[in-house]
Write a structure and sequence with these properties.
The chain has 9 helices and 6 strands. The protein has 185 residues and is an alpha/beta fold.
């Protein structure tokens, strides 16, 4: 904790303005609330990038009190069985509950969905879920093909037709949701 507090102080002295807490999974850190409070004291804008699986109401309130500014939740699809299968663990319901809690606690919410062959055809439903949950922003991130994804490229890479359809869906959603939700694709 002390080492990270020192690093944050040095970063602030260099002019850094934002702290994005990512991972792995930042909620695994026992000192996360303390680090958020330190970052707040230094004047950082703080963003938690999380699976949300460890985001209990108690922990969320502690992070809010410590000064956390923003929450980004990763979700794999708009439907429980597909999302859980892609995630490799039953997690969809907890992620949706966490997203609702984030909005109840009056945080800005970004949803992040890594797009590939197995969920790209659900783009419209994914965008509808983000709208239903009150997301301020959604990042539709195409899979980056290195590491595990590179080795599994043939199973993950969408077809040209899938990409074209997804772009049409995103364009239409951007027009419909202009001013309500930012769509990054």
């Amino acid at each position: 904790t002390e080492e990270w507090q020192r690093v944050l102080t040095e970063a602030r002295e260099l002019g850094v303005l934002q702290l994005h807490l990512s991972g792995g999974e930042p909620l695994q850190r026992r000192d996360l609330v303390e680090l958020v409070a330190s970052a707040r004291d230094l004047g950082f804008y703080t963003n938690l990038i999380t699976s949300a699986l460890g985001l209990s109401r108690r922990r969320a309130v502690e992070l809010k009190t410590a000064g956390l500014d923003h929450v980004q939740i990763s979700i794999q699809a708009d439907e429980q069985s597909l999302s859980d299968r892609i995630a490799g663990t039953p997690s969809y319901e907890r992620k949706v509950e966490a997203a609702r809690m984030v909005k109840e606690l009056d945080w800005p919410l970004t949803m992040n969905v890594v797009i590939h062959r197995h969920n790209i055809d659900r783009m419209g439903r994914i965008l509808n879920l983000a709208e239903e949950l009150g997301a301020d922003r959604i990042e539709l991130a195409n899979t980056q093909y290195y590491g595990w994804a590179g080795r599994n490229r043939a199973a993950l890479l969408p077809s040209r037709t899938q990409l074209d359809r997804a772009e049409d869906v995103v364009r239409a959603a951007r027009r419909r949701l202009d001013g309500k939700m930012e769509i990054i694709y």
